[in-house]
Design brief:
By secondary structure, the protein is mainly alpha-helical. It is 61% helix and 4% strand. Belongs to the MS5 protein family.
Length: 296
């Protein structure tokens, strides 16, 4: 139970102490099930108690959006990702429309943790559809994101490139390097960075297209893309360069038998940024069943 600094007496001094206590521990005010769950999570460092209290908060209708998301995060930290997935699927209908996007992001992380690549890929494709149809960002051109306690603005272009990067990585885990290559190419055209350039280089390297891989890597080596000066990016680029130096740089590019609508669809997504379009991309409706894995 959260400590009561007022000792039952409502004093300005006591209120200030309690407010200061909540700020220090990053706790919401009050004494509801959700607040007690956060106290167990952040102050007592008792994840099992926190999970129980988050369940109570959800059942009591107390800050359900935050309670479900926070409980899923704690379950993931306890290596109970499967339970977290089922919880989100079962109770997300109790959450607000504004919370659905952040729940999808948690779900993608959980799928990644569990190695559920097909589910991860399908959800990433769904997020791309929502962006094109104007359903993402709640219809706004930007949204506020958080990272390590810091707030910053994210544009639709940046979010699309990020999702494409995640989709490319999921394809790589399936060793579907042809699909990953296409996705990374489009991501780089929208919002290029060193990490995706290195991943694209690796896709090409895995397909024995060493000259093309070297050309992509040059953008990082010559600090032409964002993040190239990051120590991790430099280190990874050096490792890829060493691997490339073991091979010749010329190779005939294989003719990929890919659905044209996939490329055309992503081209339209990149060029048409108005977030209020109702027409769907051809890629979302006209992909051949046998090539569904390449559709987004």
């Amino acid at each position: 139970m959260i400590k009561n600094y007022n000792n039952g007496i409502c004093t300005k001094k006591g209120e200030m102490k309690q407010e200061f206590y909540h700020v220090i521990h990053k706790l919401p005010p009050g004494d509801s099930p959700y607040v007690r769950a956060k106290y167990a999570q952040l102050v007592e460092k008792d994840p099992e108690a926190a999970i129980v209290l988050f369940w109570k908060a959800i059942n009591a209708g107390d800050r359900v959006d935050s309670a479900l998301k926070d409980m899923a995060v704690v379950l993931k930290q306890q290596d109970r990702s499967e339970e977290a997935i089922e919880a989100i699927k079962s109770f997300r209908d109790r959450c607000s429309k504004q919370a659905q996007e952040s729940l999808d992001n948690v779900l993608i992380d959980l799928y990644k943790k569990c190695g559920k690549l097909e589910e991860q890929i399908e959800l990433l494709k769904q997020k791309l559809r929502m962006i094109y149809q104007g359903e993402a960002f709640n219809g706004k051109p930007t949204k506020t994101a958080r990272s390590h306690g810091r707030k910053f603005q994210v544009t639709i272009k940046q979010e699309t490139s990020r999702i494409l990067g995640n989709l490319g990585w999921a394809y790589m885990q399936q060793t579907n390097y042809a699909a990953a290559e296409i996705v990374y190419h489009k991501a780089q055209q929208i919002d290029p960075d060193a990490n995706k350039a290195c991943n694209l280089c690796l896709c090409l390297l895995k397909q024995a297209r060493y000259s093309e891989a070297r050309s992509v890597l040059e953008d990082v080596l010559q600090v032409k893309v964002s993040g190239s000066d990051d120590p991790k990016s430099k280190s990874r680029a050096d490792e890829l360069l060493k691997e490339l130096e073991q091979f010749g740089y010329t190779s005939t590019s294989p003719q990929l038998n890919l659905e044209d609508a996939f490329i055309e669809g992503l081209d339209q997504l990149m060029n048409e940024w108005t977030p209020f379009r109702s027409r769907r991309l051809p890629i979302f409706e006209e992909i051949s069943p046998c090539r569904d894995q390449l559709a987004c």
